[in-house]
What we know:
This is Snf7-domain-containing protein. The protein has 204 residues and is mostly helical. It has five helices and no strands. The longest helix is centred in the middle third of the chain and has 61 residues, at 54-114.
Amino acid sequence: MGGNQSIPKITAQxxxxxxxKLQRDKLKQYQKKIQTVLDxxxxxxxxxxxxxxxxxxxxxxxxxxxxxxxxxKTDTQLETLEQLVSTIEFSLVEVSVLHGLKQGNxxxxxxxxxxxxxxxxxLMEETAEAQAYQREIDEMLTTTLTLDEEESVQLELRALQAxxxxxxxxxxxxxxxxxxxxxxxxxxHIAIPEQQRAKVALEA
Length: 204
């Protein structure tokens, strides 16, 4: 099963980046070593000066100064290595992006080949022909129907429209009163028309 797995290919660029990073790590280890020497020379100078050996203290300080100059050189070299690694890695990213753009352009070219002017014109003609054919069918159906058939079609259309329309709300009628109506006696002082007075006199 393990033999079927694809092993990533190590390129020359990968090896170069790996070598640069190894050199960078070695420089960092060397810097730590120099820093240890600097600290030791500083302690030696203090001890010699305390013991009254000024000349030996000066020698220790000179050795320390020399180690400091080495440390500065390693700082410069380390900075150069780190910049070089960053530049190479960024260049590889740019190459990958350019490769992707190249593949994208090739795909676009293939699409443009399939969508040339002749293909578009042919598609438009076929669409126009299909629309014309549909119009002919509509006209033929319209002219071949009799008046009764056309009337039946219109009735069916109105029935479908009635089904789609919302039902009208029922009319709410007023409630019927359950109590007896109150009859009031006519007021004697209310003026009665002359014809009604004559009718009342005859009935009496």
